[in-house]
Amino acid sequence: MMKNNPNSVLVVGFNTRPLVYSLNKAGYDVYAVDFFGDLDLYSHVKDFIIITKELSGNYNSLRERYSKYLADYSISLLQKHQNINFLLIGSGLDDAYNDRERILNKSEVINLTSVNNCLSTVKKARDIDYIFKILKVRGFCVPISFSFEDFGLENVNLDFPFILKKRRSAGGLNVFKIEDKKSLYSKVKSFERSNFSPSEWLVQEYIDGIPVSCTIISNGIECEIISINRQIIGKEFLNPPKNFIYCGNIVPSGLSESEEKKIAEISKFLAKNIGLRGINGFDFVIKNQTPFFMECNPRIPGSIRASESALNINLLDLHIKSFTTGEWKQISKIIKSSTFKCFSTKLVVFALKTIEKNLLDKINHLKFVHDKTEPIRNVLKGEPLCTILYGANSLLESYNGAKNIVIEINKIIE
């Protein structure tokens, strides 16, 4: 069945604003199901559903079931707009397999083209035991890791500090650094007060190094490296609610050629082995010039706008085209011939305290501020306030320029 609007796309995710921005700039008619509903989303979409508005809630009140809500409202919007051609699933549904499947099933009924990894590929990408196993066989480095079920509380067989993390986690949520036996017992005791399932948790060696990521584009067989990115994790000046929360990126990374070569080798190996399609991301930690693989994000990563800015390329358009027969050769040529035009720093600013809604207009009018909170309610402590995207000729210039915008924000909310 031929669609009336072949250049239309529904974007579903926790934060769709960066994706809809680029798709709209590339000429697509964009529809969105989004959790927060940032102020600078609306001008780029034809229609939308905002979860927090529909349910009159906030992140803290809705976070336990937000994947269900994303699926429910995606199905609702697809029912309303059956002429949409493409479906793009962003962040928030990596490990919510049932909710992802519900959206995909609905899209099949109305003949949408899914520009996402298939469900079996997503599951493969998120199977950390499988990924670590194939990497170790090839001689690549991964942290020592085993199930919490196999972990002896009385005879701890891993040096402190180590990491306790949920198998299914994203953005640094449910990741804890355990410094000693006292903090271990305390954390386990707090878990036991909730619905704690030991099989869902991993004990992992703590790798003290530089967090980085790799953004790739592939067609299920071939793969090109888009960018290798410095990751900004848990920086205090950005007020993250927890220590390992994702707070941004610097693109390109500024790593050595040998470090980047090894990261590219691992990323290409995994992309082919998993069968990834479109744009996806891999996380690493560099220790003593050696990359340790951490996890795969089988979707467009949070660093995408920083990569687009640094390369001056519309990557979202290439993502959709990578699912079209006959386009790969041109996509590969574009990526191979691309060069970085600048360094681009993305920072995610969180609220250190409750921020009154009457201050948001001043913050939103600052240059380089994106993902702007709509001034209709107060921003609660720990919630994301905005994103900063700052380009410059050097890594330090870019990073410091973005930090200066944080200083301007702090002056407003003092």
UniProtKB/TrEMBL annotation:
Pfam families: ATP-grasp_3
A GO-annotated cellular component: cytosol
Alphabetical UniProt keywords: ATP-binding, Ligase, Nucleotide-binding
InterPro entries associated with the record: ATP-grasp, ATP-grasp_PylC-type, CPAse_ATP-bd
Any GO MF annotation of the entry: ligase activity
Keyword ATP-binding tagged: yes
Positions of the ATP-grasp domain: 132-324
Keyword Lyase carried by entry: no
PANTHER family: FORMATE-DEPENDENT PHOSPHORIBOSYLGLYCINAMIDE FORMYLTRANSFERASE
Name of the molecule in the record: ATP-grasp domain-containing protein
The species this protein was found in: marine sediment metagenome
